Amino acid sequence: MVDILAYGSLVFTGSEVLREGYVYIRNGRIVDYGEQPTPEEYTYAALVLGGEGRVIMPGLTAIVASITYPFRYKRLGVDDRLKLYRSMSREESIALSLPAIHEAHLHGITTVAVEALDYSVPKALEESIGGSYALALPLCSTDSPEARPPGIAGLVKIRSSECKNGDIVEGSDGFGYLDGDRVLAFLARPTISLANIEGAYRASNALRKAMGLGESRIEKGSNAELAIFDATRPPSFLLDRAGDEVVEALYSTGARAETVVVGDHVLVDGGEHLYIVEKHFKEARRAALRIVEKWPIGGFTA
Question: For the chain, which domains are there?
């Protein structure tokens, strides 16, 4: 287990903004946070992250139709995605998910709700590349569990045109809605970018509530889910010096997270993913081409 100290010019906890703050993590949980000076005993942490001009934020939670990511420009609806999922193996589902998870992590999304029919996919992703994963279950599926399957962060159901009993409704804009309000769900979308999405943090917490999870916050005792952004350069240049009321808007600047921490794992460091690398993109491409050969996606051919 690794002790982690993160510090920055600004820390947004979810409820307050701290200037020149720090967050101390031990065994994957937030032990303490506050404004400088950092207590001396924390300065001996094995990993020290962040620095001047960095903004530390709670990680976001989002649904991503990650398996269809290579075909996202086709805007596949729920029913077409169901057909696709039923046509592929578990190994193909995992391989095709990795590019989308890579992009999600780089935007500060720390809990990814992966749309899949195989309940073991989220757990396999956690074990292989680290992070936190929930299951987004598109309806109608062959079976619909009432309880959350073991080993995953949460469960949410997405409605199709065939089945109306899901939690999340896919809007014509490709985003997800719950009781008429937006949640952070990238479904039939051509991109996972958070750029120009207002209220991303609130939409993320609305989704977490639907999945039975507490809000993503920086608070003592909570699981560590942090995104650290670099406000020394565009597109988030000098946002560490902006007013407290605009801090939450940093999520929607389109900035790539410099560092992403989930539990006691650093998933992104220096703006690069540490676990999803070139070999995974090659595997995803091979899997996508096999799927295209078996079942052309909306007229797409290799």
Answer: 4-58+217-270 (2.30.40.10), 60-210 (no CATH)
- What phi, psi does 168 have (nearest 5°)? -100, 130
Of 184, 205, 219, the C-alpha closest to 11 is 219
pTM: 0.92
Distance between CA atoms of residues 21 and 5, nearest Å: 11
**pLDDT for position 301:** 45
> Mean pLDDT, 10 residues at a time, over the chain (302 residues)?
90 94 96 94 92 95 90 82 86 93 95 91 92 89 61 86 80 87 88 86 94 93 96 90 83 91 94 95 92 68 42
Q: Say how far apart CA 31 and CA 3 lie, in whole Å.
A: 10
